[in-house]
DNA sequence: TCTGGGGTCCTAGGACCC
DNA sequence: TCTGGGGTCCTAGGACCC
């Protein structure tokens, strides 16, 4: 805990949905749900309009449709979100060299390193307001909620208190007044399982938690978690803002609309996933020793099997072969008999150096499998709602598609009900839109 | 047709070594 | 004959986060 409210937590509001509404003006003011749209999809982000119908993140898309069937259901456009995220992080890094990203839409900023004249409440508040305005300007109207406090813990709670488009400062010294009446679930790290254990022990609020001894907490939730909770209940948190965090693992997984039972098909899926993992390792100059497969069965039980190599690898073939061997062991044991809904491959035990090719035979990247593989998410060439495109009239978005014809709606902030035109799906003038 | 995908951290047990 | 103890690595599973 610092003496001043020098920790800023910034969180972009309903981020994915907001980017979609920015790019597709006809969706503004309307319920927008971004997430998996297959039979087993879940909601990533719901716009605030959709939330009034009870739609929440992590809810199954099926349930979201039941609650809010008239919403626009969109598959995420990660590249677009990434671009916006980079703009926002640019603003934050101009402010302070100490920026810790938590995800595409969330970060901590250490204002003590920002070179402000002082760190009084008025000064940091004005700074945060300026940043919020800058974010809105640079991103084309996205709003951010900000919390300012003396620690990461309290800043994060604060940014949540006045969403969306809010700014909450917790004056140093008042942390416990804020915290004590709150439910223990506000503490990051207290999820459903921990909350239930605490509830059974009669602990509901942070004030309740504060009455419990470390020994008792350790008994209830384990050593690490217990000692952490003991401190957080007292608002004791001196964690630093860490701008660089090294990657510990790289993985690819997919959930399939129909349970998998065919072993050759599953092996091909693992092989393709291994190729993707290897490509990402190489792109980041990483290699790793431990290969893990993840198998989620029809009944949602999850099995992990791993094996560790003597030396790190970034070779698709090596990863794929080991992954297939591990899968084979599950088949032999009969574990896969009921069907598999999710399959994945990961590499951990990472080294940030590339293993020398000692024997010259390690270059064994396998070709893409030639069988057509099921897609975890079906994605036609041009799909309504999913694509922002560029065509002869400028920027538009795909309003509908089918039978080789794509209908594009051209909208800008100035002309929210812009014209609609149709194109042949293979019209070369129809290009995915990228920001210049 | 309940329950994504990409991660991090923790726990616990067994092997192995000194 | 009567089985210590600590450290490290590996594996598996679970909780949690966005």
Automatic annotation (TrEMBL):
Cofactor detail note: Binds 2 magnesium ions per subunit.
GO cellular component: cytosol
Pfam families named among the record's database cross-references: IMS, IMS_C, IMS_HHH_1
This protein's UniProt keywords: Cytoplasm, DNA damage, DNA repair, DNA replication, DNA-binding, DNA-directed DNA polymerase, Magnesium, Metal-binding, Mutator protein, Nucleotidyltransferase, Transferase
Coiled-coil regions, chain positions: none
Top EC class for this record: transferase
Active site: 106
Subcellular location: Cytoplasm
Binding site for Mg(2+): 11, 105
Family annotation (Gene3D superfamilies): 3.30.70.270, 3.40.1170.60, 5' to 3' exonuclease, C-terminal subdomain (1.10.150.20), DNA polymerase, Y-family, little finger domain (3.30.1490.100)
Record site feature (Substrate discrimination), residues: 16
Primary role: Poorly processive, error-prone DNA polymerase involved in untargeted mutagenesis. Copies undamaged DNA at stalled replication forks, which arise in vivo from mismatched or misaligned primer ends. These misaligned primers can be extended by PolIV. Exhibits no 3'-5' exonuclease (proofreading) activity. May be involved in translesional synthesis, in conjunction with the beta clamp from PolIII.
Name this polypeptide is given: DNA polymerase IV
Native species: Nocardioides luteus
Gene of this entry: dinB
